[in-house]
Design a protein that fits this description.
The complex is a heterodimer of chains A (528) and B (345). Chain A is an alpha/beta fold. Chain A is built from 18 helices and 20 strands. In chain A, the strands form 4 sheets. In chain A, strands 6-7-8-3-9-10 form a 6-stranded mixed beta sheet, sandwiched between helices. Chain A has a 6-stranded mixed beta sheet with strand order 16-17-18-13-19-20. The radius of gyration of chain A is 24 Å and the shape is globular. The N and C termini of chain A lie far apart (57 Å). Chain B has 345 residues and is mostly helical. Chain B has a domain of 220 residues. The chains are: A alpha/beta (528), B mainly alpha (345).
């Protein structure tokens, strides 16, 4: 497919020519050309490892390309650092946000202002926050500390940060991967307003439906090169899939669901569990639920409605304000995390890079993190790293992860690969209970499929699974039962066959009336 | 992230970088000396000759490197999990006090029983001094950098009190020091120099530190905590226990340095047993990026500067502070170079 000039007779605003960037052992970008017009939403589509992130980091001045040029508005740029890029009006929102948690929103924004002097004018920033807030629907509380904000709110802070610093080209690296459905809609509205005001937006993603919903033009990357650029009007889903995956074909299929009452014993029971969140608000309000062996219970809910607190309470990382956590009939409410994990609990955390791995340690070292006692007997004196590496290599190969060497630090891997490693690590333990947060987030189509299959295999092997997700399609496909979490309370409990996704979506967002589970103790354990 | 990769991958580049940066600091000091009308080449020549020009100079370098190595490990162990132990000076004095108590009260014991006992007392004294900030950090989240730093002054003053009060030598004509330790409480000297058995303590401590870090589960868990405490907590690693463990083990080693100073060099407790070994050890650890082998090299380098500093004072009439300025500049240049690198990474 040929590269087309930007449509509507608009001139080329941003031009990348012949960008090549290689890392030891991998050519991440190979002669990439990309033309983007002013006021255009340009989707950069590609699977994990296609080179999207590298290309965007080159554009953001984070990496220097081995070859190739970047120009904006006809002027050639020499970007040696992100601050050069910001001066040239190019800003980027990363998948993992670059905010200082202990600082307030206004302070975080002040940090990035070019030419901000010794004295911070927080009131001026507040005014600009309000201005951008009302204009683009980017409302964020200026004085809230960043660590108190939900992921969606943090993303909005990141976008405002770019606007305030005068960026005209916004790079969004998989911006929707952390958002709930209704937040995605909101983000798209914001992006459209920005486009109207002449902002140029590079939207990096691997989600086809989002591309079709928002992009003006689409560039598809595969294996570090451009497969083609086409206007959305001329693109169809099958075309894009072909371009994305090459010759590979998607296996279609659905999973066998347990429509009968799960026969297994209850592995996890929560009784009236209440937990306070960091903001001092109620994180969880008297949540009761039960997960049996051989069952996947899906927890649907918009991020920030108590999911983090739920996971942390089960893992013993956060002391409940009330209620009990029971594992295999044993009350573990006050047990240490180590003791709870030793009972056969595995977790895929909501933020893999921040919560799941030590980025400076090697892949091999990270893969044994959950099972230190087994891999490192006698205080670690008898650790057989060679055997460990062989075992991991085998598993990694079976799962089809492209990893250079196991002695490479995990921090150098892409987000999708980290997610896959965490999935492997959690499932390798054959856990009694798996608490999986967004297990397919950041994964491409093929890997998502594989991850879901692994979850089903684990379930069929008798594992109890608590699947926390915002992806309703995934929840409906995998769950034996579904619980909706809204504002820290259980808003409903169903079998996936009984309801429509729309109804669950409405419950998630609090638009529908909440079932008062806590009102009647008899029904306080859904499904019992 | 990329800088992390680079740090881990380039085993050769980092030492080279460090040496280059250190050289840069020497050039900067040279410029500074020129400004005051002194010949930097001559000054460096004096430092070099002072340290390497005689067997005595060389042996004194090692003598000073001993407490520096121990205090550096005291910094490096907690630093590997992200704790800043600035309390080496206080912990050294804590160990010295505990050993002094042993030497003064258990002096009747035979040497074979007394010396091991004094080693244990030194370790315990240092560990006790570190336990206070470690416990405050664990129980109440008190910043250990501040508490270890402040505790230094308390413990040094406590030593002053002891040598002027309860432990004062009645035969000292009012000098503030304890009676001399009995022969059985003295560490051996070697090769007719002041190099003492503390050298083995230091080398064994550094070797154990290296092995523990690389070969044991503790070391592994400490490295995980240092790299990402959130992930460590989620993997069930007891962070609080490691705060106590690393701080107290570190403190114990600094305490051992104090024990060696009073039992070998001074043979009594007196104010000024340490010329800032705790702080210089902190510097050594950071210059070595908390790496065991780097600690040996950097401790020797700063030992050279310290011995050379004496010579500069004597033969050029420059103040000893010249050496402090060199040390400070090395510290700034090396750390500055490190941070600049990690930001661009």
């Amino acid at each position: 497919m040929a590269v087309e000039a930007p449509s509507d007779g608009d001139h080329v605003y941003l031009r990348l020519e012949g960008i090549t960037k290689s890392f030891p052992g991998v050519v991440a970008n190979c002669g990439i050309n990309l033309d983007v017009g002013r006021g255009e939403i340009h989707a950069v589509l590609g699977e994990n490892g296609a080179g999207k992130s590298t290309l965007m980091k080159v554009l953001y001045g984070f990496w220097q390309p081995d070859a190739g040029t970047i120009s904006v508005d006809g002027k050639r740029l020499d970007l040696r650092s992100p601050s050069d890029a910001i001066r040239a009006g190019i800003g980027m929102v990363f998948q993992s946000f670059m905010l200082i948690p202990a600082f307030s929103v206004a302070e975080n924004i002040a940090l990035t202002l070019p030419g901000s002097g010794v004295l911070l004018s927080v009131s001026a920033i507040r005014a600009r926050l309000r201005e951008f807030g009302s204009r683009y629907g980017l409302s964020v509380e200026a004085d809230a500390k960043v660590w108190q904000l939900s992921v969606g709110e943090q993303q909005r802070v990141e976008i405002v940060k770019l606007l305030v610093s005068g960026a005209r080209v916004l790079i969004l690296d998989e911006p929707t991967s952390v958002l709930a459905p209704h937040e995605v809609t909101k983000l798209f509205e914001i992006l459209q307003t920005l486009r109207r005001d002449g902002y140029t937006i590079l939207f990096v993603t691997h989600k086809l439906n989002e591309v079709m919903a928002i992009a003006d033009r689409i560039t598809v990357l595969r294996k570090g090169g451009v497969v083609g650029t086409l206007p959305r009007a001329g693109a169809t889903l099958p075309d894009l899939v072909d371009m994305l995956l090459g010759e590979r074909e998607l296996r279609a299929g659905s999973f066998e669901r347990r429509d009968h009452e799960p026969g297994g014993r209850a592995v996890l029971e929560l009784h009236d569990l209440s937990v306070r969140s960091d903001r001092g608000r109620t994180g969880l309000a008297r949540v009761s639920l039960r997960v049996c062996a051989g069952e996947i219970v899906g927890v649907a809910g918009v991020t920030g409605n108590g999911q983090t607190e739920l996971g942390e309470a089960i893992l013993g990382l956060r002391r409940p304000a009330g209620g009990r956590v029971v594992l295999d009939g044993v009350d573990v409410t006050r047990r240490s995390t180590a003791a709870i994990l030793a009972q056969g609990v595995a977790c895929i955390p909501e933020d893999p890079l921040r919560m799941g791995v030590a980025p400076g340690l090697t892949i091999a070292e990270n893969m044994v993190l959950d099972e230190r006692a087994r891999y490192m007997p006698f205080g670690g004196l008898l650790t057989d790293w060679r055997a460990i590496r062989r075992e991991i290599e085998l598993r990694v190969e079976n799962f089809g992860i492209a990893i250079p060497r196991l002695s490479v630090p995990v921090g150098t891997l892409s987000g999708g690969n980290v997610q896959r490693l965490l999935l492997l690590r959690a499932l390798a333990r054959k856990p009694r209970l798996l608490v999986a947060f967004y297990p397919t987030r950041g994964l491409d189509i093929a890997a998502t499929r594989m991850a879901q299959e692994l979850l089903m295999v684990s379930r069929n092997g008798g594992a109890a699974t608590l699947l926390i997700s915002e992806d309703l399609d995934e929840l409906f496909a995998l769950s034996d039962r579904l619980v909706v979490l809204s504002r820290g309370a259980v808003a409903g409990s169903f079998r996936p066959g009984e309801v429509e996704t729309v109804d669950v979506g409405l419950l998630m967002t609090g638009a529908a009336k909440r079932h008062e589970w806590q009102a009647s103790p008899a029904s306080s354990i859904p499904g019992s | 992230m990329a800088s992390v990769a680079r740090l881990v991958d380039s085993r050769v580049l980092i030492p080279l970088r460090l040496l280059g940066l250190t050289a840069l600091a020497f050039v900067a000091v040279g410029a500074f000396l020129l400004l005051f009308g002194r010949n930097p080449i001559e000054a460096y020549g004096v430092i070099f000759k002072g340290a390497f020009g005689s067997g005595y100079g060389l042996s004194e370098v090692v003598v000073r490197a001993i407490p520096l190595m121990l205090c550096a490990v005291a910094t490096a162990i907690p630093a590997r999990m992200g704790l800043l132990n600035v309390g080496g000076e206080g912990q050294l004095h804590g160990g010295a006090m505990a050993a002094t108590w042993g030497a003064l009260t258990l002096g009747a014991l035979p040497r074979g029983a007394l010396l091991p006992g004094l080693v244990i007392l030194g370790l315990l004294g240092g560990a006790a001094a570190a336990f206070v900030p470690a416990f405050l950090r664990w129980a109440a989240g008190v910043n250990e950098t501040i508490s270890t730093l402040l505790l230094n002054y308390v413990i040094v003053l406590l030593v002053e009190y002891m040598v002027r009060g309860p432990w004062k030598d009645p035969m000292s004509y009012n000098w503030p020091f304890t009676p001399e330790f009995p022969e059985s409480a003295r560490l051996s000297f070697y090769w007719g120099t002041r190099i003492h058995a503390g050298l083995w303590f230091a080398l064994v401590a550094i070797t154990l530190f290296y092995l523990a870090l690389r070969r044991t589960r503790w070391g592994y868990e400490i490295r995980v905590i240092g790299d990402n405490p959130d992930a460590a907590a989620r993997a069930g690693i007891p962070l609080g226990r490691y705060v106590l463990l690393t701080m107290c083990v570190g403190g114990a080693l600094a305490g051992l340095a104090g024990m060696a100073e009073v039992c070998a060099i001074q043979s009594r407790l007196r104010p000024g047993i340490s010329t800032g070994f705790g702080y210089t050890g902190f510097l050594v650890s950071w210059l070595a990026l908390h790496h065991p082998l780097g600690i040996v090299v950097m401790a020797l380098l700063l030992g050279v500067l310290s011995v050379g500093g004496d010579m500069v004072q004597i033969s050029l009439g420059l103040p000893y502070a010249t050496v402090n300025i060199i040390m400070a500049l090395i510290f700034f240049v090396v750390l500055g170079g490190r941070f600049r690198k990690s930001r661009s990474g």
